[in-house]
Design brief:
By secondary structure, this protein is α+β, with helices and mostly antiparallel strands. 58% of the residues lie in helices and 8% in strands. β3 (60-65) and β4 form a beta hairpin.
């Protein structure tokens, strides 16, 4: 049983990696959180692949710095460029979300971006802390400075984009609420005008129907049925005119648009050590 567990722990790393046991013993059956481990001048970076969608699960990536300064990765090659490639994947994903944010106009569109951005921001923030820890443990490796700075830019840019999307979504929701309130007000005003008309004419119509207040006008037996049809047509025309005058008042509704704040600079600079 113990040998099987040990095999599972070792299988997280490539079998040809000759890491000190002090590092291997710190690995569990999963990659766990993003972190940096060092022993005997060996350095192991445990990072996560860029999250896709709103997924909660993650896949670990391992970067090994040997005592001679050479690098190996579990999936991206055996040079320091593998770490650059890992960071570039985060940059590409962030650029794609920024493009979606530029053309977003509704709260649903902003929510879709935020849903993808939250795990990306969390992963980028922890990635920066792990690379910063690696930089501190290997102060002579100046290439880690560029990687650390790029990781900080990704973390900071994702934070700014997340705040922009939240503000824009709140703005869109507020505009939608304002529009609905305006429509409700106009409907209430139209109902009030209609109720006023009903209140005026309902007693008269009721009394007329009860007592049969028909007056002789001389057209009862002439031009049948054109007299009756003429009265119906005139009534419909008057009804439509009344509806237009009382109920179809044009309403100026503000257009719901995107958050029009100026685009922030999402590429902060970081000074070297």
């Amino acid at each position: 049983m113990q040998s099987e567990k040990a095999a599972n722990l070792i299988s997280l790393l490539p079998s040809e990696w000759e890491l000190p046991q002090a590092i291997r013993r710190r690995l569990g059956q999963q990659a766990g959180r993003q972190r940096c481990m060092s022993a005997e001048n060996h350095l192991l970076l445990v990072l996560h692949e860029p999250p896709t969608g709103s997924e909660i699960s993650f896949t670990g990536r391992f970067f090994w710095r040997k005592p001679d300064g050479s690098w190996s990765s579990s999936t991206l090659g055996d040079t320091i460029d593998s770490l650059d490639q890992h960071l570039d994947e985060f940059d590409d994903l962030l650029d794609r979300l920024e493009e979606k944010e530029i053309i977003a106009r509704t709260a649903d569109e902003y929510f879709s971006i935020i849903d993808e951005l939250i795990p990306l921001h969390r992963s980028a923030e922890n990635m920066y802390l792990a690379i910063q820890s690696a930089r501190e443990s290997q102060p002579e490796d100046f290439r880690l400075i560029d990687c650390r700075d790029q990781a900080y830019e990704i973390s900071r840019s994702s934070d700014l984009l997340l705040n922009d999307c939240k503000a824009a979504m709140d703005y869109a929701i507020a505009k939608r609420t304002e529009e609905q309130a305006l429509y409700s007000f106009e409907l209430a005003a139209s109902a009030n005008r209609m109720n006023t008309l009903i209140a005026i004419f309902l007693p008269l119509a009721t009394l007329s129907s009860i007592f049969g207040m028909n007056l002789g006008h001389g057209f009862e037996n002439q031009l049948q049925p054109f007299g009756f049809l003429g009265v119906i047509i005139c009534g419909l025309i008057l009804g439509l005119a009344l509806k237009y005058l009382l109920l179809n008042k044009p309403v100026e509704v503000p257009k719901i648009d995107a958050f029009d704040a100026p685009v922030l600079n999402r590429k902060p600079s970081v000074s070297d050590d």
